[in-house]
Structure formats: structure tokens, C-alpha cells
Structures
1.
Amino acid sequence: MARVVHFDISADLPEKLIPFYERIFRWKFSKWEGPMEYWMIETGPDDKPGINGGLGKRQEDDRVVDTIDVKDLDTVLERIKVEGGRIITEKGPVPGVGWFAQFRDPEGNVFGLMEDDPTAK
């Protein structure tokens, strides 16, 4: 069974949005050391239910995207196509983390997919 493991918020000016979430929800932000402008969001302690997320520069629109952990991204992408979904971001590496893609379900909802692979480049 695949689980939602991450959410992603987009912003035109991410650094100016951080204080909003810090003040309201007391979330903690830390700058990611990867190849893009991105902040990791800690929403609470690991021993409590919930997921953490990230905040990055807006790419296309203003949606929040939930990311689902999968064991075999290639297989899941093929199944999505067969079942009437549409791939909107092809499989690509998140260096040191894994492989990422995005899809729309048949009703237009957008989700991310992540396959863990620390060797991804």
C-alpha cells in the first residue's frame, strides 16, 4: 500500500511566505542543500501522526501537491496511463533522495510520486 509522505507548497517569494506558516502553525523551515531553491518543512514530532513537507519557488500554478511513496516508479507510471491518468512531470532525479514524477488523475487532481534512491543523480 502506498502512502502520502510529503506535501509541497509553491510560492512566488518563498522566503517571504515562511514567517506566515511559522507564526500560525509553528512549523520549522530549513533550507535544502540541493540544486534548487527549496525549504524543508517540519510540521511536528516524528512520534506523532502527520507528514512533513517542503516550500519551493512557484513553477506553474498555485496548487499544493501531495507526494506518494512508491517502490517502483516506472511500473506505477505505466499503471497510471492504463487507468486513464496523465503524466505531467516525467521521471527525474532528486539528487541524493530518489526519483520523482507528477501525474493528474482522471478528475484532474495532481499528485507527486517518489521512489527512494539515495544514488539518484
2.
Amino acid sequence: MTDACRSASERKADTIARLERDADVWAATASAGRPHLVPLSFAWDGTHVILATPAASPTARNAATSGDLRLALGTSRDVTIIEASVEVVRCADAEDSIAQCHAARTGWDPRQEDVQHVYLIAMPRTTRAWRSLPEIEGRTIMRGGQWTPA
């Protein structure tokens, strides 16, 4: 891996490519100061990160209570961290576009499960991407839900 720093536009392009191709993401929530971290399959519709989890899971409960979700893609040497607001929607009540996007991307339709599931529809607010120490400075590529200038 090179120590050359990527521009904001390169980091944005790399992040979008990762959202379009990666299969799983680490999803972090918290309740009463206790963190909870799980890997989940996800879909990216160009605006939202869409995940599904059992309605009774700690992830679903914590996200519904706080309205926040933190996502991590990649490895410790090429990471993307996304802080997002999240809407928790019963799979049976979700818009078809959300359900179809998730099913097409993950190969799994949680609406068909015996256990009730919810979609976590995450809207990124802040996104940071870096590969190595030289990229720590300038790692924020999205603020307030808007990509930063290149």
C-alpha cells in the first residue's frame, strides 16, 4: 500500500465503489452507554445504506431508540466510517424500492422470514475514509450529509 494521500474526490470515489461492491458492514449502536457491534449484509441505493435485522435484536432496539447508527467498511488499513441517522421500518411496511434493493443486493428477502425483521435505513451524515497515517488529515469526506469539495 502506498503512503501517497488520495484527494477528497478519490476518497469519495473509493467509498462509493466500496458501498457498491462490499457485501457486509460492521454496524454499531449503543444503549445506556453499552456499545453493540454486529456484522450485517447491506445494500446501497445511492443515498441510503439499507440493512435488515430481527426486530427484537439489540441493534434494532438501539437504533430505534437513538436514531443513530455507525457503520464501518474495510480493514484497519483502508477504512470507511459512516455516521448516520437511521429510520427503523418493519420489513412488511417498507417501500418496495427499499425491499427490492436489499433483496437484489444481498440475495435475501427478510420479508420471507418467520421472525419479524426490520430494515435499518441509514442516511449518512458524516463519512471519513483513510488508508494510513498520512491520510488521517483530510479524512472527512462528508459533513452534514454533503460530500466535501474535492
3.
Amino acid sequence: MKEIDPETAERVARGGGPGPSRLMSRQLSVYYSNCVMAATSPRDISLYFGRYVPTPDDKGGQQLSELYERQIYMTIEQAKDLARMLNQTIMDLEKGTGPKKAT
């Protein structure tokens, strides 16, 4: 494996690596989702993110229903990378090697 020179290592650590930079939009909004649904085409995967909301049922009471409000499209390759990243993050958290939980 090729060694990275210290200047490149520092730039990568700051987020300015040899690949595309990572920037966060100033208009980024947070959305909490506790349900997700996936749909596929031959080339893409679409993830629908939603939350459970109370809705009236047939008997005049209430029930919980899934309300999908956000949709994200990605390529199959991006979906594979996302699945790999999520699996690794979950394993690290379960082992206690991930980010520390707030106390």
C-alpha cells in the first residue's frame, strides 16, 4: 500500500482529500425518520423516509400510519456503499468502538 505524505494526510483529515470535497449545505435541514421503504428500477434505488403519525381508524379511534415525506434516489453502486457504511457503523457502535453515547 502506498504511503501518504504528511501534507496529503493533513488535507485528507480536514476533508480536502484527493477525491471530491465534502461540503455541507447552509440550508441543510434535519429530518427524523422512523420508517423507510425501498423501491427499485433496473438502474436505481429509491428510498422513501417517513415517520409514524396518528390517523383515525374505522371505529372512531386512532391508529398509527406510515407517512412518507422524503425520497432519495441513488445508483446501485451508491446503495451498496451506503449499506456497507451503515453496517460498519452499526457494528462499531455495538462493539463500543464508535462515537461515544451522550451521558
